[in-house]
């Protein structure tokens, strides 16, 4: 195509007609992403461990005109995931975008102090749950020749951390899972990517946001000198789920205000 043939492509971020499943959707990043998907025209399944939280989030979206439904699921439980997959697919006949956002931090402190149960729980929720969902929902996407899977990683998986080591390990594994699945399923039109947020203003980050000494240090090493907002991560998720991200797969997109690349000066 010559430069004279270039034309604007309308609706790059439009998700009309898509069905999206978002886990960990009752609050924080999950809710912001579900709202962003719905605002772009998608029908959205909001899943969370607590049914009440998911239903309250759906009520909020419906007041904004969204087509949404709530499903409770503990992503560490294989039977729960089986039910979630079956119910989500039957709701509107398919799932086009899977957003694996559910996760837990796990214990704080040195890795040597983490017990076997800690390892099991963090990896069951953060990694195995996402892998199970992807393995169940990607094959139907592949049969249709298109689909997008987005895994919520973290900059904790891209650098060393003395406080939340298990969390960082599980998030690094999620980014690798995205690469592996992207290679496995790309030929069938399914794209798999990860997002690695930095410090975002969510309930999960509440203790850090309230720690003045920590915030002074963190913002000093963040070029944009501020905390990120949930919609700034949600926008990246929309891009990955829509035509705008149609030639992206196997990537881990960092959304951190520059923290990861800063020398602290």
Overview of this protein structure:
There is one protein chain. Helices cover 43% and strands 14% of the residues. By secondary structure, it is α/β, with parallel strands linked by helices. Helix 1 packs across helix 8. The longest helix has 29 residues, at 116-144.
Low-confidence stretches: none
Q: What share of the residues lie within helices?
A: 40-55%
Compute the gyration radius: what is it? Answer: 18 Å
β-sheet strand percentage: 5-15%
Calculate the mean pLDDT score and round it.
95
The number of helical elements comes to 8
Specify the structural class.
Answer: alpha/beta
Give the biggest sheet. Answer: 7 strands, parallel
Distance between the termini: 44 Å
Give the strand order, joined by hyphens, for the main sheet.
Answer: 3-2-1-4-5-6-7
What is the ordering of alpha helices and beta strands? EHEHEHEHEHEHHHE
- 3D shape: globular
Overall number of strands = 7
Search tags:
265 residues, alpha/beta, seven-stranded parallel beta sheet, 8 helices, globular
Fold topology:
Blueprint lengths: L18 E5 L4 H12 L3 E6 L2 H13 L4 E5 L5 H15 L4 E4 L15 H29 L2 E6 L12 H21 L4 E8 L8 H4 L2 H9 L9 H12 L10 E4 L10
Parallel strand pairs: 1-2, 1-4, 2-3, 4-5, 5-6, 6-7
Helix pairs in contact: 1-8, 3-4, 4-5
Brief write-up:
By secondary structure, this protein is of the alpha/beta class.
